[in-house]
Specification:
Layout lengths: L2 H23 L7 H12 L6 E7 L5 E9 L9 H11 L3 E7 L9 H16 L3 E8 L3
Helix pairs in contact: 3-4
């Protein structure tokens, strides 16, 4: 990469961050997977280790908070459902969207990704919090 490439990337990130701040300040709703995907890509795509993050939403899918909950290595992060439930109750949210990055660049979910999604969905349903989506952020 050249300095010009770095400058272009920095400018693109700045534009995306401005869009996200507009999104948040104007209490826009996360009404599509693309909106959530863009938000998480901005936050997680370039991370070198796996990060599991959550956006906590109102019943109209307006963002309450974004939190990076669990941190791992290049090929995994341990997710603790009890902590997810605790944060959901703390934020008094009605819905969540979860995401994590794959530093390898691969964006297909692993078997363990599918397992934790089902587990979190079942546990969050008990406290009337909807798990709307689980996104895997890769290079594509």
């Amino acid at each position: 990469m050249t300095k010009r490439d770095d400058h272009t990337i920095e400018k693109a990130i700045q534009i995306l961050e401005n869009r996200m701040y507009y999104f948040l300040e104007n209490k826009e709703s996360f009404t599509s997977t693309n909106a959530a995907k863009d938000y998480f890509k901005l936050k997680l795509a370039d991370r070198k280790n796996e990060v599991f993050a959550i956006i906590f939403l109102t019943n109209r899918h307006v963002l309450i908070a974004y939190e990076e909950m669990f941190f791992g290595t290049v090929n995994g992060a341990s997710v603790h459902p009890r902590e997810v439930v605790r944060k959901a109750l703390e934020h008094n949210c009605s819905a969540v969207i979860i995401a994590h990055n794959h530093p390898s660049g691969e964006s297909h979910p692993s078997r363990s990704d599918e397992t934790i999604t089902r587990r979190l969905k079942d546990i969050l349903n008990v406290i009337d919090v909807s798990l709307l989506d689980h996104l895997v952020i890769g290079k594509t």
